[in-house]
């Protein structure tokens, strides 16, 4: 099954950069306290070997996420053929990333040009994905030169974690924390306030 219809029109504008309006700030997630289908989550990151500190934080959040959903962390080697040309490097990384994205995955691309969302909207994103009919959510963190065209086109949603460019290791840690925070929002737990 291929997911070709965008599950949520307010989140699928690939390069919109609108921040939440003042009316949206302080609002609650529309799925809070409701049953949400917990899809397995896969985070696909392009990069090199992770630092010990990042590995420890990722492992900590994997444990925290365990009660909510299954989680898989996949690392795609950056510049696998040591290409000198940036375009060739991005294409090689893209091929490896696309092999990890299933045809029925709900794909979230993290990109500096993506939509700026808050924590409640991230929780809603998880709820929307759970209601989409997809079998898994795949979050894609690109390499030093970003994502290739195929990955961008495959995205159901394109978001950014910050207006600043983040190193892939920092982006991974921020994403992991936000995934945990999102689940606590969905479950009405006290972590988020």
Going by helix content, strand content and strand pairing, the class is alpha/beta
Order of helices and strands: EHEHEHEHEH
Q: What is the correct CATH architecture?
A: 3-Layer(aba) Sandwich
Low-confidence stretches: 1-26
Alpha-carbon distance between the two ends: 38 Å
Strand order of the largest sheet: 2-1-4-3-5
Biggest pleated-sheet summary: 5 strands, parallel
Strand content: 15-25%
Which fold name corresponds to the CATH topology?
Alpha/beta knot
Range of helix content = 25-40%
CATH class: Alpha Beta
User: Can you give the mean pLDDT?
Assistant: 86
Our count of helices gives: 5
Number of domains: 1
Number of strands: 5
Task: Explain how this protein is built.
The chain has 193 residues and is an alpha/beta fold. It has one domain (41-186): 3-Layer(aba) Sandwich (Alpha/beta knot), CATH 3.40.1280. 34% of the residues lie in helices and 19% in strands. It has 5 helices and 5 strands, in the order E-H-E-H-E-H-E-H-E-H. The protein has helices at residues 52-65, 86-100, 119-130, 149-154, 168-186, and strands at residues 41-47, 71-77, 105-116, 136-141, 157-160. The protein has a 5-stranded parallel β-sheet, with helices on both faces. Helix 1 links the parallel strand 1 and strand 2 (71-77). Helix 1 (52-65) runs parallel beside helix 5 and helix 3 crosses helix 5 (168-186). Keywords: Methyltransferase, S-adenosyl-L-methionine, Transferase. InterPro entries: Alpha/beta_knot_MTases (IPR029028), RlmH-like (IPR003742), tRNA_m1G_MTases_N (IPR029026). It comes from Arabidopsis thaliana (Mouse-ear cress). Belongs to the RNA methyltransferase RlmH family. Its EC number is 2.1.1.-.
